Amino acid sequence: MKPRRLVLSLILITILAFSLFSNFIFQNRTTPVEVAKFDTGDTAWMIMATALVLLMTPGLGFFYGGMVGKKNVISTMLQSFMAMVIVSILWVMIAYGLCFGPSIGGFIGNPIPNLFFNNVGITSAWSLAPTIPLLLFALFQVKFAIITPALITGAFAERIRFWPYLLFMVLFILFVYTPLAHSTWHPEGIFFKMGVLDFAGGTVVHMSAGWAALAGAMFLGKRKVQKTNPARITYVLLGTGLLWFGWFGFNAGSAMGANGLATQALGTTTVAAAAASMTWVFFDKILGHKLSAMGACIGAVVGLVAITPAAGFVSIAHAVTIGILSSLTSNIAVSKFPKGKIDDALDVFACHGVGGMSGMVLTGVFASKAINPAIVDQGLIFGETKLFLNQLTALVLVSLFAFAASYALFYITNKISRLRVSEDKEALGLDISQHGEYL
Fold first, then answer.
1. Residue 362's domain spans which residues?
2. Does the predicted model carry a pTM greater than 0.85?
3. In a domain, 432, yes or no
């Protein structure tokens, strides 16, 4: 048996064995708990929000798939689809515990108590989401983990081998995503205790994906043909609609209940995306370009990215400001990005990385106790500086960590199995060369 087939067989057998005998393996570690009294309205909304966030990943598949050349549509969309498959299992096995298990130094969780969702059930709750079952909280959180590596794929589109991509995705979740999620969202996490505000994933999802995308584009090198006609702009429009729709679960769901804060997050998400899309196409027209469907879609996504860390902390009016400023920033970043030297195929860094950083900084400017009384420090516009400085500190630390760790993981993955396709397979297209399928 070839080494790869042997490894895959062993992985399947190991997962099957643990899933079959998990009750026996973990029976002595199970802690009896009292049945918590949950709010049915909150539970119903969070089930819906969880489904909405999952819908974002197929939406991203359409969004990216429509942008690449016709020979690479299936492969690009499948990269997003397989993130749902691989990360879901990895989350149950170990990644949930690394994110939300007992804190080890504020950097990472201890996964042992929650291996294979041990002690993750419907009779207890997460401390910051006391009105819904812990299992529902865990399932909501896995949707965030799923879309993060999928976002990265746009940077190295049309030139990566599929099996090494799956390996990189596993390593990224274990060594980049989980420490960032723990540091930011766990009550004992270092960023959480600093007072850093990230309502739904500006650092954890978008900045980490943006910096990993830049690392991947640099490591894999340029495509032989960088300028390709988008295969289906209608796919991009469809994907944007699905992303925008799913983003209501992403942001409003992060309120962890059917409450006023969820409503506020839904409102800020709506207007930030609209303002950013409007700004993108207006700015293009000011610069002498045509108003394009691609521009309108990219602008909307940038607005969604930027409002993510701020959604539950800022007013509706300030959400409009965030949408406008982030759209201008990312539009300029796209136009000024050194495309001749670094081939970020779908501008992931300029949109998600820069958009995420814009959102983190602007959260430090506009966060208000009038919107969310739970926050300790307000934004710069209200005359306070501590939050703003904390946001900048987190931005620098996350950027350095995400880029360096991701580049190292690309290097390690490439040593195990070559990441870049050969020139002839790149010319043939990944749909045929990697999957034997075509449109």
1. 38-422
2. yes
3. no
